[in-house]
Amino acid sequence: MSYADDVKEYIDGVLSGRIVTGRLERLAVHRHVDDLVKAGERGFRFDERIASKAIAVSRLCNQFEGEWAGKPLELRGEQKFIVWNLFGWRQKSDGLRRFRQGQIEVGRKSGKSCLASYLCILLSMLDEPLERGAQGYVAATKQDQAKIVWKCARRMIEQSPAFAKRAKITPSKLEIEFPDFDSIFRPIASDSKTVDGFNPHFIIKDEEHAYREQHRGLVDTLASGFGARSQPITITITTYGDDQSTIWQENHDYAVRCLESVITGKIVDDTWFAMICALDYPMEQPCFRCQGDDCAWCGGGGVIAPDDPYNEKIWRKANPGIGSGSGCTPKIERMRESALMAKQRKDKESEFFQKNLNIVVASRQRVIMPEVWELCAGELSDWDTADGINGAFDLGATDDFSAVMECASFTQMDDDGVEFTRYEFDGRSFTAEDRKEHMRLGFIDRWIEDGLLSASPGNAVDLNAVEAYIVERAGLHTVGTWAFDKFGARQMGQSLLNTHGIPVFEFTQAACHYNEPVKMFLSLLNQTRMVGGKPVRLVTHNGCPVLAWQATNLIIRRNAKGERMPDKSDGVGKIDAMVALLMAFSERMYHEELFPEATYQPGDMFA
């Protein structure tokens, strides 16, 4: 059977549900299949010959330890799929590689070092087109960690006759040379003397979850050397991180956005490949491309429940090679031992969840999946018939984003004669034409061109335009209080009250004020009621892609009491519109006295 057949068998197994996979691994497969049809329009093509050659190189790499010592490397289905994508996708214009970044996240003991070593050999000696004088580096936080993959590659070369005679290994220098190709491969770390002046063709980032802010300089310096290379690539192979893994979190979130492009239909970055193997936890989610009553994912219910971390039948989602017997990595017996200890000792549970199952163990959590948000898009009602309307505005930094949102509530009766309340949201976001460098993104420019996002001339949001929009909206309908962050918008709040007579409320940005509204809003997102035989969602929004982007950027952090509030610390993942939405929703709900225990009342306005 050909390598193309091997990959097709894996793809068919994933799409049919025969292979147990998590949401993000399935999205990686959907993305590839969709791209085979659509990516040509964006300037890409797939080359099966190059992809097959890259996989074939693995058969020349002999393993060197345990029961596999001396045997050729056998890639698993998902590993072949990774290589198939990284090397097979090409630019139509010049035939060079499409992907510049590969984000590969799998659980502990899934053969990450072995895969990384093979990729180092492939990129050093047999890349296509061959890069003469290639410099390759395995980067880690410490030299000892970086040496793990380097030593693995060294031993793989020594065990493989086809490579051993073409490599010159100098252990004292931690250097592997390939004289026929003028290529070199070394480990590098933040505790190395310097990496300035290096000219990398490829970088393998090992265990990115361990990177901290003090290691950002290493990554930035290595990446800055790519300018002279025709098809450089960075491949990250890691497990999940935690609250301290800021660099990993940024790249993980971005990789997820790239995968979710198959849901939203909006291309995020065609140069990023991602394969993320993880449990579906802790939220339920709509079944993407549900197969109906016989759906392998949801059983026909349309909703996928959160995984039970202790159910070994789904451990494959994070550890694709798991099993019992020869060739299985990790061994399921070892996983059972770790699970048993985690059950009996809570101090071990977070480690088991994070390292073995790729579950985020952090006080910060992304809370809205694009599938859910898309379902809530719809036509808004006549707000003159609303029970009431409340608004809010979040101004953000002057050279960044600002947003105004409104929340209207409607009381209805369902088919069972039970009264319920549903909520609708409308609003607008604002930015500056000359905004921060990291916010000069193509999709933001398109929104401005399409009139979906207001952009002020210069390098600052025109706050007069924001205020004029609020005044205009307040004149269209009877709006109750407009909430705002007193530390960022007090002057505008005073102007709205004193000049225009618009009631405003200082919304203190504290978890105790956000907690109940956040919980209620997230709960309502997934709820529907039957009215006239048709499902009616309890949350409806205007379908604006700017709001959709910010909704799926929303990160919620918890304090020591477990109270939740939006986290605005991510500079790229803007959430100003969602902060305004939650404040408006809170005003609407407190107005309805759903939370009588509230520590403040919406009628309290500053003097």
Structural overview:
The chain has an 8-stranded mixed sheet, with helices on both faces. Strand 16, helix 14 and strand 17 (454-456) form a beta-alpha-beta unit. Helix 1 crosses helix 4 (77-88). It has 607 residues and is α/β, with parallel strands linked by helices. It has 19 helices and 24 strands. Helices cover 36% and strands 19% of the residues.
Tags for this model:
607 residues; alpha/beta; seven-stranded mixed β-sheet; 19 helices; 19% strand; globular
For the secondary structure, the number of strands is 24
Low-confidence stretches: 594-607
Count of discrete alpha- or pi-helical segments spanning 4 or more residues: 19
Query: What is the rounded Rg?
Result: 26 Å
Structural class computed from helices and strand pairing:
alpha/beta
Largest sheet: 8 strands, mixed
Shape, principal axes of CA atoms: globular
In the sheet with the most strands, the strands line up as 5-6-7-4-8-9-3-10
The helicity comes to 25-40%
How large is the share of residues in beta strands?
15-25%
* Straight-line N-to-C gap: 78 Å
Mean pLDDT: 89
Explain the layout of strands and helices.
Elements lengths: L2 H14 L6 H16 L5 E3 L1 H10 L19 H12 E3 L9 E5 L6 H14 L9 E6 L2 H16 L2 H4 L3 E3 L4 E4 L4 E7 L12 E5 L9 H9 L8 E6 L7 H14 L1 H4 L7 E5 L8 E2 L16 E2 L27 H13 L1 H12 L6 E3 L3 H6 L12 E7 L6 E13 L5 E14 L9 H8 L4 E3 L6 H14 L5 E3 L1 H15 L3 E3 L4 H15 L2 E4 L2 E4 L1 E3 L3 H9 L1 E4 L5 E3 L9 H16 L16
Parallel strand pairs: 3-9, 3-10, 4-7, 4-8, 8-9, 14-18, 16-17, 16-22, 18-19
Antiparallel strand pairs: 1-2, 5-6, 6-7, 11-12, 13-23, 14-15, 15-16, 20-21, 23-24
Helix pairs in contact: 1-4, 3-4, 5-6, 11-12, 17-19
